[in-house]
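Deliverable D2.4 — example input (structure tokens):
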């Protein structure tokens, strides 16, 4: 998996309460005006994957926090009235808290993406007291899974 810094939303971003990613990607190159095309479909053509991972373990005083991660686009960099293109749904604390956990590894869905693209971390029943996350786009997501020697794969 090759990571391009220009396609990175979060790099060890501390998340303790609801927040958008540190980086929001501008889908329009510098010097190009939006013109009449206010959206574009980046989910078609060659596959692009959204990967979200827990970098350092998340903690919560009562281990009951939930986390929802969404990929959103909007016509403004603050993602204030964003369109949601993907959502993990509310994940239980045990499902996202260990360091190294892959929270999402999904192909971008086809659709009308607005100019600015970012990730929103929604913490509920929290707050989290610690934890950092990575989120980025890649062309080839790592999906290797090892199996026990001699096991039958059905």
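Example output (designed residues):
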């Amino acid at each position: 998996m090759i990571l391009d810094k220009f396609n990175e939303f979060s790099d060890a971003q501390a998340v303790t309460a609801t927040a958008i990613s540190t980086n929001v990607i501008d889908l329009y190159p510098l010097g190009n005006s939006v013109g009449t095309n206010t959206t574009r479909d980046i989910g078609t053509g060659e596959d692009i994957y959204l990967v979200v991972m827990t970098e350092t373990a998340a903690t919560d005083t009562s281990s009951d926090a939930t986390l929802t991660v969404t990929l959103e686009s909007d016509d403004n960099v603050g993602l204030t009235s964003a369109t949601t293109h993907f959502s993990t749904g509310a994940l239980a604390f045990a499902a996202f808290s260990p360091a190294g956990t892959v929270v999402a590894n999904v192909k971008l869905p086809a659709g009308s993406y607005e100019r600015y693209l970012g990730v929103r971390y929604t913490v509920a029943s929290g707050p989290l007291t610690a934890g950092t996350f990575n989120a980025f786009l890649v062309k080839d997501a790592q999906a290797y899974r090892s199996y026990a020697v001699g096991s039958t794969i059905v």
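The mean pLDDT is 88.
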